[in-house]
Design brief:
Number of helices: 3
Order of helices and strands: HHH
Distance between the termini: 43 Å
Largest sheet: none
Strand content: under 5%
Shape: elongated
Number of strands: 0
Length: 74
Amino acid sequence: MSESSRQAQLRARVVELARAQDPYAHIYAGKEFRRDYVAGRTMEWSALFEDMRDTTTGVLEIGSKEGRSALMPN
């Protein structure tokens, strides 16, 4: 097995595990995306923006690729 093939398998496994532990996975059910840039980051983003939830009424996201992160609940 080549090194790049092994890395691709490991990367896919990390994303699979992140999705399994993602409390927001139900939001993405039934939607089609080509790549998942978000599953491994939702927990960090949730913690990062937690203190702003009650005081922020809107957020502008620039460069959201396919929009998966824009579906995260606020």
